[in-house]
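Bug #77: duplicate submission created two jobs. Keeping one. Sequence:
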Amino acid sequence: MSDLLLPFAFALLLWWLSTGFILFLNHLPRRTYPWSLAAVSILMLVALFGIVRGSGETSQFAAMLAFAEALVVWAWLEMSYFMGLITGPRKSPCPPRESGWRRFSLALQTSLHHELAVILLGSLIIVLTWSAANQVAAGTFVILWLMRWSAKLNLFLGVPNVNVEWFPQPLRFLSSYMPVRPMNLLFPFSVTLGTAGVAGLFLFATVIDDPFHRTGYTLFGSLLALAVIEHWFLVLPLRDSRLWDWALRLAGQGTRPRTGQKRQDSTQHEIDNGHGNTTWQGARDGA
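Kept job's structure:
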């Protein structure tokens, strides 16, 4: 069991640091966004090259490196969205009385281009490593992809907690698509299936003798477990943002407790002030 601790600790550390790194860059002045995206774009291309080059290697180090490279690609996707480079055709709040499929359609339009970018990059990684011995990068990306969709659907259906303070100011209108509700019908299925997946992956890690596969399954299980925990943070009265207060402080931002009322007040403020422009446009304008 001790040989599982290293990949578990590695996944936990990268999850914590990468989230903080993205938050830090997202909350710097908007004039820094082009520079941040340019730097991370270079890292993303290097990571894609590394994924392909290392797809035939099956050491423990190769598994951990592929995991880290997939997180770099994912970080670029997250930054491209929150910095406003790749979002969607709709950049305004949800009208108050919209519901059902109409509301879902409007919500999808806020991130349609980004969803296509996720599909494109994910498909690229899968194709480039198809039939290769090292599938850690592809598996990591798929877990992030599926759990991101699960989290977004739960946010759309309604949860009590959302870190609105993590959104750059021009994107805070997105909270208008996230109703405040104590629970939704999808949530129990999301956490139950996710927890079952965690148990299965860790079980595989304990019964396989090969160090490469043990490491890979441990990394997958750790990442999925963290995603399930993030789902629980959406409904439990816990302020998970404290884990990354350091990143916001470094960027010169403060944090505040998450409450549904404050989220609604923030959304209304965005609507009243007409904040519908993208952060990328603000960066190009020298904001």
